[in-house]
Amino acid sequence: MAHIDYYLGTISPWCYLAGDRLERMAKANGATITYKPIDLMQLFARTGGVAPAERHESRLAYRMQELERWRDRLDLPLTLKPAHFPVNMAPSSYAVIAAQQAGEGDVGALVQGFLRAVWADERDISDDGVIRDVLESAGFDPGIADKGLLAGAEQYGRNLEEAVAAGVFGAPFYIVRESGQKFWGQDRLDMLSDHLASL
Fold first, then answer.
1. pLDDT tens-digit map of 159-192
2. Domain ranges in the chain?
3. Angle at CA of residue 177, ends 37 and 14, nearest 5°
4. For domain 3-198, which CATH number applies: 3.40.50.300, 3.40.30.10, 3.30.420.270, 3.30.930.10?
5. pTM, whole model, 2 decimals?
6. Which of 1, 100, 142, 181 is least crowded, fewest Cβ atoms below 10 Å from its Cβ?
7. How far apart are CA 45 and CA 29, in angstroms?
8. Cα–Cα distance between 81 and 71 in angstroms, integer?
């Protein structure tokens, strides 16, 4: 059975555009997933990337075009300039980590819930009320937001160190443990699916 380490940012539009394709292909191929939320801004700084706010205007303009193209291609609602972006990723990331450790709901739906909250619903995912609501919607105890705070914070830091050591430099980033194959971007999911089928 293959296992995928999924490095993600809870405010990444590209993670949002991935939708539930990873979960569907994992199910089809009998693969499992570990969700690894990371601080994307720190990841960029440590791996030669540049935070969106600091990028040249030509790169920002192209990014907007790509977001529009993929939004239309995938037929997903996406606000190009959401009200709460950028926002502190840590609280929602802690919630994902704590929820995964609790193991009682759908972690994939939880991740997508936070991403949809930013890019489709224009909600502030650093807000405790929003975090609790998204947790509950994905089948988790909203109290996880409090109970898992310390463990989530510690694992969040470890996730970043693991990401850097593993060669991760952006999100979404998928690594198949058995083969070491790496896939960066939601536009590589078809290639990941083909790879899983070949194992």
1. 999 999 999 999 999 999 999 999 999 999 999 9
2. 3-198
3. 40
4. 3.40.30.10
5. 0.96
6. 1
7. 35
8. 13
